[in-house]
Amino acid sequence: MATPTKNDAIIIVGAGAFGLSTALALAERGYVNVTVFDKQLYDETQYSYFKGSDAASADINKIVRAAYGGQTIYQELSFEGIEGWKAWNDELASGRVVPPGMSSAETIFYPHGNLVMTDTEELLPFERDTIANMERSGNKDTQLIAGDARHEEIARQKGLAFAMDPFRRRARGQRHTALLDSTGGTVLADKACRFALCKARSLGVKFVFGPAAGAFLSLNRTPGSINRILGITTQDGKVHTAAFTIIACGCWTPTLLPQLDGLCEATAGSVVIFKIPKSSPLYDRLDPENFPSWQWNMRRGAEGGLYGFPRDSNGLLKIGYRGTKYTNPKVQSDGKERSVPITRWSKSEPLTTIPVQAMKTIDRFVDSHLPELRAEGINVETTRACWYTDSYDNHLVIDRVPDTEGLMVATGGSGHAFKYMPCIGKWIVDVMERVDLNRPAIKAWQWRSLKANEQPFNVLMEGSKGNRALGNVSLVHGIKGQERARL
Ligand SMILES: Cc1cc2nc3c(=O)[nH]c(=O)nc-3n(C[C@H](O)[C@H](O)[C@H](O)COP(=O)(O)OP(=O)(O)OC[C@H]3O[C@@H](n4cnc5c(N)ncnc54)[C@H](O)[C@@H]3O)c2cc1C
What we know:
By secondary structure, the protein is an alpha+beta fold. Helix content is 25%, strand content 24%.
């Protein structure tokens, strides 16, 4: 199977974290004819959900952490990503790459730590594994246990004392079982995408945006062969020829490439956003300089699975629910059901619809961890379903499509891939160039299927009868401020 030369045309479909990172890596490696297509008008919407974007990467903020339990491939990948985030901060500050509408005084990555909390008496095995693996890999004292005097002192020396108990649990006499990953923090997702877009353009990558010229319609195949891909046709009917095509369409990928059946599926997470007024004492307390990103009861089923952030520069405080991974199965043209993301362009549900279970879990968390929000009468500003691309084993999917030449897929973020944005493109290009394919990470990302005796991390394709299908769960519609009764 041929590998493209530096002058060959390469097409990337999708300008989210995977597509942008791939474009950057190709340009940095000397590929001179790279074009990225995306159906969204990102130059206008600036990757902001509030300005009309809708994609996993088009978000306010994302967690960065290197704490990965026993999964050292992601621990190491995260460290690579964190170095990249720091370099992007420096590059922005230097003025070398400043996206339109942004200034060199802005920050993309806040290294303010990521705090994992559980309502158990002890840290869970996952957190214990993280500590052990960090120590083994020369990263001792990066993981700090709340309440451990030595660790509290290390946090203080690192300027992260605020991050050990940001919800002031101990002051309220509540149990606080938590582990701070002092290497982690928050990345501002929309700004990161704008930075990567600007940087890729400056290196010569071409971008075609919009629902006609930028939207993928079909793959072009060599006449007489169904297995050799020669580029794509876009919605406007134009044929774009390429030696190599990379599909990186996030949650849309499984419906565009049905070969992913059983390997990847689009699932919904729920996001609730509060708006903190500048006049509130919470405004300063929740400033990203004073507050970490956090997770709560991530491995504790439907009643847990929350994560959150400091407020952003508009006062928006985002809390996400991932305790249940919802689906939206719909019959496709081949007669099979696949989960289809509900986005701002969908006609089926109001955009702000989320499951009652998600709202209840967030309500309970706010009551117990941030009662000041209630005391000040700060209500929900908006809600949003946000679509992930889950693989059955939670590993990424970065590989050539089997039995097909000239076509690769980069997807399967499974809720944790944004943090790799500065570096994942290099790995994707390595796979394209077939560089060192025996590395454990690359092997984990290969095309695969669930083995007969394998226990999936994510159960996929349960269909419309499954109890995670949105059609089978209670939903809350159109939540806005005071209009919502407490559930
Ligand atoms: C709610 C939520 C919270 C998350 N939190 C975190 C976190 O805290 N930390 C972390 O590391 N990761 C997190 N993730 C995961 C991370 O956001 C994703 O792994 C990553 O953003 C996926 O990027 P992507 O490029 O695969 O997909 P996307 O960002 O969805 O991009 C896909 C692109 O493909 C385009 N596209 C689709 N169809 C077509 C078509 N037919 N033609 C042209 N273009 C098309 C879309 O317009 C879109 O721009 C989270 C994900 C979600 C949903």
